[in-house]
Amino acid sequence: MSNLQHKTDVILIGAGIMSATLGSLLKELAPDWEIKVFEKLASAGEESSNEWNNAGTGHAALCELNYTSEKPDGSIDISKAVKVNEQFQMSRQFWSYLVNSNLIRHPQDFIMPLPHMSLVQGEKNVAFLKKRFKALSTIPLFQGMAFSDDPEKLKEWVPLIMEGRTSKEPIAATKIDSGTDVNFGALTRMLFQHLEKQNVEINYKHLVKDMKRTDDGLWEVKVQKVESGKIEFHTAKFVFIGGGGGSLPLLQKTGISESKRIGGFPVSGLFLVCKNPEVAERHHAKVYGKAKVGAPPMSVPHLDTRYIDNKKSLLFGPFAGFSPKFLKTGSNVDLLGSVKPHNLLTMLAAGAKELALTKYLIQQVLLSKEKRMDELREFMPNAKSEDWEVVLAGQRVQVIKDTDAGGKGTLQFGTEVVSAADGSIAALLGASPGASTAVHVMLEVLEKCFPQHMFEWEAKIKDMIPSYGVSLAENSALFRELHHSTAEALGLSERQLVYS
Ligand SMILES: Cc1cc2nc3c(=O)[nH]c(=O)nc-3n(C[C@H](O)[C@H](O)[C@H](O)COP(=O)(O)OP(=O)(O)OC[C@H]3O[C@@H](n4cnc5c(N)ncnc54)[C@H](O)[C@@H]3O)c2cc1C
């Protein structure tokens, strides 16, 4: 049975952090636009954005070593770290705007101050960390970072990591107190509650099955009610595909030329979670190490304090793995179903190039809990198996495309906005740096899809996100002012004192 529905201005597919952010931006910029959301699950933030499905790191390049690389001349390239940090500052500003405007409340329910640390072992790695520290210390965005290779100091910073350590190898760490732990699940739910109050129609248990262009230039979206199986058709002037891992198959259904020759490679994640409160109480930081040789950048091991449901817990991982599903709640035929005549060669080329990665991921899936505990013990020598349990995290679908630099079938580790030339539809693919930079990425969607409105919207965007269009790395006074005001609005300054 079919049912033709009214047309609307905007359809957002998926109720994750990306649709939540885009909807919230649009409600401020174009309050009269009618917005509908379709989500296949029963509530918001249940897939990758859920607090147990990601690591909750407010990625600002304060601790992630993969954002700084060593150049052939031995110097450190910090350009990516600066970019990621500036993007995270935009998220802080937008969240602060929402709190200051009483559109969302209780920021302590989604963001907590938490030191971010990088920790390395071995002479070469220690030398790299020292150079990285020196390079970052010249930039205001990273001010307050400390370096130590003194085991006594490290015992103060990370007692659980130092206790029982017998290795005589040199060890060093950097520490910066202005890091954060973000509960992206809670934030997503808050933003959808706010959108509901702003008359956005949110349809849970509605699966988007197909999309096509109508003769009058609109998009017709075919939606199935999960419980009754009933089919509905909704039309919109603009559609955002925010389906997380499920975005690629939906993008392919649009048939737009920009969707061709793109593939996806799913990487699953597992964490070890410590629920023993006595152990969790003795660690207070996100501590990022170095990825093992052959491991993809998203499986850099880290030992994190997490604040979820007002409880402190510890999380270690993520262990990468292979699953053909594009979503945690996806299907085993997702990967196969995404291979189309137009991306077959790209996918085959990637398959041939990434054999080592596939082998690594399959080996990771087969690890027993004890083997995973052994990896944790490289971080925390005295970790006891009975304190830790394995939890399944979210799926990340990495983009595969042909690039000038990498050639046919190159695996990408970043996020990509793919949009139609006329700006009527856009999709977000990839998952890194991820939720932390949602505001920056959704502003990119607006710039690509609504260029005709950007002049009119610019003043409001700058009111919400004062660093929009400005390099904070080159404007230290503005950075300090915004860092201070966002810390106040999000309650980070006083809680930093309470918890550290
Ligand atoms: C293991 C792991 C660790 C991570 N760690 C971090 C971190 O520390 N910091 C960070 O910033 N980011 C991190 N990320 C990335 C971050 O979680 C994602 O970038 C972000 O949550 C993606 O949000 P989204 O809204 O695009 O997707 P999702 O949150 O996955 O939401 C997509 C929604 O679309 C729905 N959907 C899909 N298809 C359909 C359809 N056909 N019809 C209707 N609904 C549909 C899904 O049910 C889902 O609710 C991590 C990710 C993983 C997997």
UniProtKB/TrEMBL annotation:
EC annotation from Swiss-Prot or TrEMBL: 1.1.5.4
Any Pfam family the entry gives: Mqo
Top-level taxon of the source organism: Bacteria
Catalysed transformations (reactions): (S)-malate + a quinone = a quinol + oxaloacetate
Listed pathway(s): Carbohydrate metabolism; tricarboxylic acid cycle; oxaloacetate from (S)-malate (quinone route): step 1/1
Cofactor(s) needed: FAD
InterPro entries reported for this sequence: FAD/NAD-bd_sf, MQO
Family stated for the protein in its record: Belongs to the MQO family.
Designated name of the protein: Probable malate:quinone oxidoreductase
Organism: Evansella caseinilytica
